Structure formats: C-alpha cells, structure tokens
Amino acid sequence: MVTVGGKAGPAGLEVVDATVHYGSDVGIEDVTVEVRPGEVVGLLGPSGCGKSTLLRAIAGLEPLTSGRILWDGSDLSAVPVHRRGFGMVFQDGQLFSTMTVGRNIAYGLAGMPRAAQEERVAEMLELIGLTGYAGRRTTELSGGEAQRIALARSLAPRPRALLLDEPLSALDTTLRRRLAQDLARILRETGTTAAYVTHDHQEAYTVADRVAILDAGRLLQVAEPETLRARPASRRVADFLGFSAYVPADEARELGWDGDLGPGEMLGLGPASLQLDSSGVELPVVEQSLTVDDIAITVELPDGQRVRVSSPSKVEESSVRVRLRGGAITPAGPGGDDTRG
C-alpha cells in the first residue's frame, strides 16, 4: 500500500530490479518501474530492446532470473499466470474463429449467469463502438474490428491490470493512429491500469500517461511524453526520440532560439525544431524527401551537423531560411542509464 494525502491506497503494479537472462543473453537487466492505479505506462524502444520480455515477465509467462513483480505490495513470484488477474492483448488479437463475437467477449465470464454475461458483452460492444456485433463471426471482422474485440474480451472480466503487446502494429498507419486514439479513450474511461508495448513513438505518446524507454534490456528513462521530448535523460534517449543534432547555447541563439541552457547541457534538434522563416538564418539544403505528412528537407548547420525541416512542398533553391523554435535540453555527455522522471 502507498499513502496519498494521508490515506492508504493501492500501490498498483511494481517491477523491482527485474532481470531475465536467456543463458548468456540478456532479456532485461535490473528494470524497476511502477504502473500506478488507473495509469497507462508505455514500454517504448527498438526491436529486441526487452519491452516484450518485460511484459511477459509481468504476466508470469517469462520467469525472472532475479527481481520481483508486485501487485499492491504483494509478491507475485509464486502466483501462476491465470491467478494474477491480468488481461492480455496481443498483436494478432488471437480471437477464437469458431465462436461469435459475443462468445469471444464472454469467454472470461464463465462464472456469471447467462443474462449477466449478455449484459456485459453489450456493455463492452458499446464501449468499443461496435454495438450489434455480438452475433457476427470473427472471420467477418476487419483487422481494426478484430483488435477492438480482443480489447473488449480482455476488459470484460474487469482485470486488475491490462498488458498489451503491440496490439496495433499489424494495422496500416492511418488505422493505427485512429485506433490509438480510441484505445486511449477506452482505457481512461474504464480507469484501467495498463502496460502498453509499442515501437511507435506517436502511438506511445497518444495512449500512455508515462512512457518508459528501454534499450538493450535496460530502462533508460520513465517520464510523461512532454518531459521526454523536452528533457531526455541522456543523449541515448534523445537519439532514439529522433533528435539528430546537438548545439550549445550560443549556436542555438544564432539560429534564433531565445531559451537558456545550464552547465553541461546541449540543445537537441529534431524534425520540429527548425521552422521555415523568411527572416531566419540561411542554411544549405542537402536533400529533400517525401513523407506521409510533408516534405522533409535536410539542412546543414554551420558546424556540419544535419537536421530535417518540415515543408509543405519541395523547394527549388539550394538553401532555405529557418528559425530555431525549440528543442530538447539534453546532457552534453553520451549518458545511458538514467531513469529519472
């Protein structure tokens, strides 16, 4: 239990010094992170960083080499998977093709009377925006609908926590973005405590209250999305978040920035840091490329570093004028394993 405002309350999910080894290979190493009651924590990192291993360890599907998994202060080490009270949603949904949508959602409600099951199924279908789908076969569903049903099935038994392992990664970009917004709404409306694995930055920022950055099995930082982008704990975190150049205060001001840096700090520049401005500093154009959202113009800074600038269209000139509007205040050293936040 924890004390909030002088009153005892549930501690939620706690991972303490969790380590998982596969022989001589490291899955995760000394990871400590908490998921507070009603909070969604995103586990973000590149492929092979350990985020799915951490989720499986929380579920009890992966034995810990050392460390502990706690729920409300109680150690779950000896508690089997089916007794932990956690729901899970996987990348492919894993719906039962021989059952209707309604029976899929009711799968975890076997102990309830039939009428109560039907009421809960209807409640879940309304929540996910698929009212009237109870009698459909799962083979008639689109990919997005199938993942909504998988989410409803996991939420129906009212799990004390929900574990989601890249549930939207198999969907196309447009649908993934839309469903991420829907998923964020659903998790908040239901007050669900959840750990959410993804490799997609935008998805993590949309769904999670706080985001945990992992790399090579280690936890680098846990913070709200705004804090991650404004003050990454290390150069390593900033690089992963898309910052590609780092400049001291004097160079930043020459580019039009009006902020301040402390001792040992640099300003990290990412795709949104520089903006086209006819009265700004002139920089040479290195290349241009089309993205789904804009034209990405790569410019070269006076010190030779390169940064992307967003443009609505291609430019014909060999240079553009830009102004530095913001960036990430980042430790000057390479850093690595700072989990502040």
Keywords:
single chain, 341 residues, alpha+beta, 6-stranded mixed β-sheet, 33% strand, globular, disordered C terminus
Describe this structure in words.
- There is one protein chain.
- This protein starts with a strand and ends in a 10-residue tail after the last strand.
- The chain is built from nine helices and 19 strands.
- Strand 16 and strand 17 form a beta hairpin.
- Helix 3 packs across helix 4 and helix 5 (173-189) runs parallel beside helix 6 (201-207).
- The protein has a six-stranded mixed β-sheet with strand order 8-9-10-5-11-12, with helices on both faces. The chain has a four-stranded antiparallel β-sheet with strand order 4-3-6-7, covered by helices on one side.
- The protein is of the alpha+beta class.
Terminal residue distance: 21 Å
Low-confidence stretches: 1-7, 336-341
Main β sheet profile: 6 strands, mixed
Q: List how many beta strands DSSP finds.
A: 19
Q: Which range does the strand content fall in?
A: 25-35%
Alpha plus pi helix count? 9
The run of helices and strands is: EEEEEHEEEHHHEHEHEEHHEHEEEEEE
Question: How would you describe the shape?
Answer: globular
Radius of gyration: 23 Å
Reading side by side through the largest sheet, how are the strands ordered? 8-9-10-5-11-12
Overall average residue pLDDT: 92
Instruction: Assign a percent range to the helix content.
Output: 10-25%
- Counting helices, strands and paired strands, the structural category is alpha+beta
